[in-house]
Amino acid sequence: MMPVGPLMKEHRLIERMIRIMNANLENIKKENKVDPSFVDTTVDFIRTYADRCHHGKEEDILFRDLAKKDISAEDKRIMNELIKEHTMGRNNVKKLVEAKEKYIQGNKDALKDIIFNMEILIRFYPNHIEKEDKHFFIPCMDYFAEQERDAMLNEMWEFDKNMIHEKYSKVVEGYEKK
C-alpha cells in the first residue's frame, strides 16, 4: 500500500465535515446566530484531525522525506504552496476561535467574522484536497522506492497511534498548570 492511501482516506472525512460546516453556515446566515458549541466542534475537528493528524503526517513525514529527494521544480512549487496553505488554514481557525470568543462575550458583530472565516475554510479545503489528490500525492510516490514507501506508511501508522495520546496529555497538562 502506498503512503498516500491513509492521507486520501482522511481527505474523504474532511470533505464530509466541510459539507456539514457548509450546511450549518447556511443556517447561521438565515438565523443570524451561531451555536458556539458547533464552532468548538468544528475547530476541534480541523485542529486535531485535519491539521495535527492529516497535515502533520504530510509535513512531518511526506514533505520531510520529499525534501531529501531531487524533486522537480513543479513538485517543489506545489509542496511549498501546500505548506503555505496549511499555515493559512491555521490562521483562519485561530481567527474563527477569536470571533467565537467575542461572540459569546456578547459582541454580535463578531458573527460576521465567524461567517467570514468559516467561508474561507469551506472554500479552502476542497481546493486544497483536489490539489493534493490530483496533482501531488500520486506523482510524488515515484520519487520513492518501495521500501521507502513502506517505511513512510509505517511511520504514518505510528504517528496516528501517538497523536491521540499527545493531544489529551496536553489537555490534562493545561488543566494541571491552572
Written description of the protein model:
The protein is mostly helical. The chain has a single domain (4-166), classed as nmb1532 protein domain like (Four Helix Bundle (Hemerythrin (Met), subunit A), Up-down Bundle), CATH 1.20.120. The chain is built from six helices and no strands. Helix 1 (4-31) runs antiparallel to helix 2 (36-67), helix 2 runs antiparallel to helix 3 and helix 2 (36-67) packs across helix 6 (146-177). The longest helix is centred in the first third of the chain and has 32 residues, at 36-67. The protein starts with a helix and ends with a helix.
- Describe the oligomeric state of these chains in a short phrase: single chain
CATH T-level fold name: Four Helix Bundle (Hemerythrin (Met), subunit A)
Report strand %: under 5%
How confident is the prediction overall: mean pLDDT?
Answer: 93
* Coarse shape: globular
- Derived structural class: mainly alpha
Largest sheet: none
Number of helices: 6
N-to-C terminal Cα separation, in Å? 45 Å
For the record, the CATH architecture stands as Up-down Bundle
CATH class: Mainly Alpha
CATH H-level name... which superfamily?
Answer: nmb1532 protein domain like
SSE pattern:
HHHHHH
What is the count of β-strands? Answer: 0
Please tell me how large the radius of gyration is: 18 Å
